[in-house]
Amino acid sequence: MTAGCCLAAEPTFTVDATGPLAKVSPMFYGLMTEEINHSYDGGLYAELVRNRAFLDDKTAAEAWSVVNENGGEASMALDPTNGPNDQLTASLRLNVTRAGKDQPAGVANSGYWGIPVLPHTRYHASLLARAEPGFTGPLIVSIVSEDGQTVYASGKVSGLTAQWGKFDLSLKTGRLTATTKARFQITLEQPGTVWLGFVSLFPPTWNGRPNGLRKDLMQMLVDMNPKFLRFPGGNYVEGDTIDTRFDWKKTIGPIEQRHGHLCPWGYRSTDGLGLLEFLEWCEDMKAEPVLAVYAGYSLKGAHVNPGPDLAPLVQEALEEIQYVSGAADTTWGARRAADGHPAPFKLQYVEVGNEDWFDRSGSYDARFAQFYDAIKAHYPQLKVISTIGNDQPETARVHSRKPDMTDEHYYNATDEFLRMAPEYARNYDRGGPEIFVGEWAAHEDAKIKPWEPAARQQPPTPSLKAALGDAVFMAAMERNADLIKMQCYAPLLVNVNPGARQWRPDLIGYDAISTYGSPSYYAIQMFSRNFGDQVLPVRAAETSVQGAATRDSRTGEIFIKLVNPNPASEPLRLSLKGIAKLSAKASTITLAGDPEDSNLILEPGKVVPVNSTLSQVKPDFIYTLPPNSVVVLKLKGRP
Ligand code: AHR
Question: How many domains does the chain have?
Fold first, then answer.
């Protein structure tokens, strides 16, 4: 493609590099995560067995069924009381009355909407099991087709006793066509009675971590170049009630000792992805944790009074910070070391609660102050984030202390973002707290809010129209990157199977075996991978194109982000001021198409960025933006 030459077109986008230029935070692009839409269980957390500890439902062994093949006879019964330990309090009793080598009888698990079976792959299975006196096994542990006719991988467990024992085995598949139409089963070849207390199956994980994360999803996250991970929520940190908050101490240690808890999005979390796994997830992405601590308010309205009542929760947060960042000779740093990670994690940011403007008791200011004072007393280097920012009325915000940073959330329709973005943050007090936009996302239809049931009737991930809204808002945040230090889209993940989700739109969709990015995913990737360390002032005139520009001070490379929300192409005069030397060659990345276009699990590549080159670039030239487009122009200047 050739850049047009200097037409006297009126729509103009001016980029001014004359300086002085504001520095931008290297932490600007990150990710936000919580257990929602089966983000972890049935998502990123690679466990394949659903209801692995038989705790999901007190009345039925959800996801488990009886296997009776070729005349084999088995029955199963949930025992909600006789579990293997004081955390895993339930078990499944399997009674086999007739079985043989060709008559497998036992139980099967259907997984999270299927079990992904891949060729030439080693799976790790583990069980807590015991048997009636005198029965020692074997148990046949296998991955089979849904109809039980094809065995993909199989192994044996022997040596059962009347006491609970742990059994590990490796299952290896051979040549096969990848499928999710499979089940994981445990069968007997002879009559006997067995109790199962915990049944787990993992495929290979990212970095080979035991109890680790799904490789394909991790690759998609790493590809976004995130610099931080905000966790564990969102609503997930708060819980519906104080008892069901993210109680971090219950999420560490051996997974066979984690009871799990009801998450506020209506299903049980195994807590298999617990505090240490979040931290290792950060480490694996080369990102820093932005740790949200429970702050004494839960979603159904309970709050803990500031003062002595709140003190134990403040202590819990201090200990959590020590678990994350303390040396291995501190009490909780030692516990982290014992859990397998002696080195402390880098931690700079702690957020106190989540969306505390919902707390109608008005206690947040005093709760925040109590956390703030304690955190600063022990960890003066930490930046403490208030959950009530400029998107909320002045009166709702914290006044008794000056938070280091405040968190703003924006779930807006694309048209709303298009209207608000040009002025967004322009008049914010530059002497006030720094800003973290900890949750934001565009949806297409202003009448359908992301949390409403109607949103669940729409496709799980958004169309290009939403990506245009996301991109204008990202450009607005980049323009204000002197004040906005971090920002992240939410929610990040969605299992696209029916019934799996509670919120829409979401950035990345998946089922048991495949993943895909929404157009918004690609828009964020385009922005986050092309970001300098200085923000350049820009001005748009006579155009509805919105944009931003940053420069890499070491290389002189200039990144111009432009969004054309119109159904017609836009010839735009690009005027570059104060750029010492400009190469005539540049490159572009373009995301464009019909605004209704979307990616889907079976059609993942409909809206994806296209790379191209530009020649005859000058300090003043015409660049024509395609209709409905997000464009990143990468120009080579001199530092
Ligand atoms: O991102 C989904 C939810 O939106 C978060 O849990 C909550 O913080 C917000 O209301």
Answer: 3
Q: Which residue range is the domain that position 158 belongs to?
A: 64-202
Starting at the earlier edge strand, list the strands of the sheet with 73-79. Answer: 73-79, 91-98, 192-202, 122-131, 165-172
> 358: CA distance to ligand 1 center in Å?
12
Give the position, in ligand 1's atom list, of the atom nearest the Cα of 491: 1
pLDDT for 387-440, tens place per residue?
Answer: 999 999 999 999 999 999 999 999 999 999 999 999 999 999 999 999 999 999
CA 503, distance to chain mean position in Å, is: 13
| 4, pLDDT greater than 80 | no
Which residues are CB-neighbours of 427 under 8 A, at least 6 positions away? none
Q: Is 34 in the pocket of ligand 1 (CB under 6 A)?
A: yes
Question: CATH number for the domain including 326?
Answer: 3.20.20.80
pLDDT at 324 over 80: yes
To the nearest whole percent, how much of the chain has pLDDT over 90? 97
- For residue 355, the ligand 1 atom closest to its alpha carbon is 8
CATH number, domain containing residue 546: 2.60.40.1180
Specify whether 500 is located in the same domain as 575: no
pLDDT one-digit tens code per residue, 503-522: 999 999 999 999 999 999 99
DSSP state of 300: T
